[in-house]
Amino acid sequence: xxxxxxxxxxxxxxxxxxxxxxxxxxxxxxxxxxxxxxxxxxxxxxxxxxxxxxxxxxxxxxxxxxxxxxxxxxxxxxxxxxxxxxxxxxxxxxxxxxxxxxxxxxxxxxxxxxxxxxxxxxxxxxxxxxxxxxxxxxxxxxxxxxxxxxxxxxxxxxxxxxxxxxxxxxxxxxxxxxxxxxxxxxxxxxxxxxxxxxxxxxxxxxxxxxxxxxxxxxxxxxxxxxxxxxxxxxxxxxxxxxxxxxxxxxxxxxxxxxxx
Amino acid sequence: xxxxxxxxxxxxxxxxxxxxxxxxxxxxxxxxxxxxxxxxxxxxxxxxxxxxxxxxxxxxxxxxxxxxxxxxxxxxxxxxxxxxxxxxxxxxxxxxxxxxxxxxxxxxxxxxxxxxxxxxxxxxxxxxxxxxxxxx
Lengths: 260, 136
Prior knowledge:
heterodimer; A: 260 residues; alpha+beta; 6 strands; globular; B: 136 residues; mainly alpha; 434 Repressor (Amino-terminal Domain); 8 helices; elongated
């Protein structure tokens, strides 16, 4: 049952107003800053799990519910007049998948909130998946793996992506994408580098365990720091197996090409 | 083998498996309205014409919209692409309703239908008559 709530929950309004007050367009929004501001505002831990994220949504006045049965979407968000913002999730989501989707949708709710609190703000249209999707993914990565803490842990683990993912209960591909942002080429990090390609199949196939190799399309690629151990001790096949197990659908390939 | 079964048969078997229910548990949950023998026949494709009351009862137990079972049974056609696109344009035209999706590209018809359903759920408006029946 939906809680009685105004159409613009006060805590969400307060945060949106505070963050966007001095910004005029989405080009000025730094996703790392936004994630850290939200973390500080809601006292979220550096690596928030499902319970922390659900609490954060509750405090922001965002309702979480299930998508209608038969949906082919993993997640969606809506905000109707006289209704609180709502994030709808596929029932089969759990663990790191659920956390990633929840964070992704929360970013889009924030974008709606920016528009509402500051009509002059030239923001993104969350209905435009081509642009918003990328931004929301970046925000989700920053929220789930805090910049400072993630850098420190990765260094302590000698950039062992697989071990880091296991300890922080994140998927290997999502950790790799985050690593790409935290330690871009040229950052001077003393670690091995590799090229990687991430492939993803349509969600409807993935959740029904019906995806085949031909269904996967390249989603993300880059060259990134990887652990000396992971880069040399694991074959491409085993990395792919690990990533498929951990995400249920994201297929990863990587190839070491330059050991510093 | 499964490819030869009617859509309703595989759908019902899948739903029951996902809910972790036995045939007898479904019978009890339906207060005897859906006997375990009859449900087994439905799932095996040996019975093709369940009474709408049976489908309504199963929809309640499995917590799915009745329309899905009616569509799988062939009692209703799923909305056409034109109907979905017309309804989706109405959602887009409502500037008071905001939405976003976890979808990396343009929405396909199934995704649009989900948004339409969410819109109808939130606004109490009816854009697709076949969705309205889901509230049976």
